[in-house]
Design goal:
Shape: extended
Strand order of the largest sheet: 1-2-3
Radius of gyration: 24 Å
Order of helices and strands: HHEEEHH
Helix content: 25-40%
Mean pLDDT: 92
Largest sheet: 3 strands, antiparallel
Low-confidence stretches: none
């Protein structure tokens, strides 16, 4: 039986810690905004971006278009109709120590159609892979995270 009265002091301490964390995160967010405003998109930063792309050609990130990083602007023309499609996936890797050997891919998508008065269309497609023919490679090794990641990325692009 859980005796809640024995946890009251800990719960009080936890609430104080939560308040400290909230303040700390607010301070960190403010610091990040200030750094963003004061960091130039200079040659040094562009060289770091080029290096990241050279090391990993699948690097995903925004490149600054102007000399500062916090530029915001409104679109020139308002689009009456536009479609925005988003896809993202997640995975559970095979665990040779689990009760059953499997991996799972879950692909979610959303389609927003501005100007159509339609509700956003959402879909998730979970797929469970447990057959030995998909769990092992040609050398009979259990597929690893790189393979599962590539299958997830393929499913995202296909979606």
């Amino acid at each position: 039986m859980l005796e809640l009265h024995k946890l009251l002091d800990s719960v009080d301490e936890m609430s104080l810690e939560a308040a400290r964390q909230q303040k700390r995160y607010a301070d960190l967010a403010q610091d990040a905004r200030e750094r963003l405003q004061n960091t130039p998109a200079d040659e040094k930063l562009m060289a770091k971006i080029a290096q990241a792309i050279a090391v990993d050609s699948s690097w995903r990130g925004a490149e600054p278009l102007e000399g500062v990083l916090d530029v915001r602007r409104l679109p020139q023309a308002k689009l009456e109709q536009a479609s925005l499609i988003g896809v993202d996936g997640s995975q559970i890797y095979p665990d040779r120590h689990g009760a059953m050997l499997y991996y799972l891919l879950n692909i979610g998508s959303i389609v927003l159609r501005r100007g159509s008065s339609q509700a956003p269309a959402t879909e998730t497609v979970p797929t469970l892979y447990f057959d030995e023919t998909v769990l092992y490679d040609d050398q009979h090794y259990l597929v690893g995270s790189e393979y599962v990641n590539s299958q997830r990325e393929l499913a995202e692009v296909t979606t």
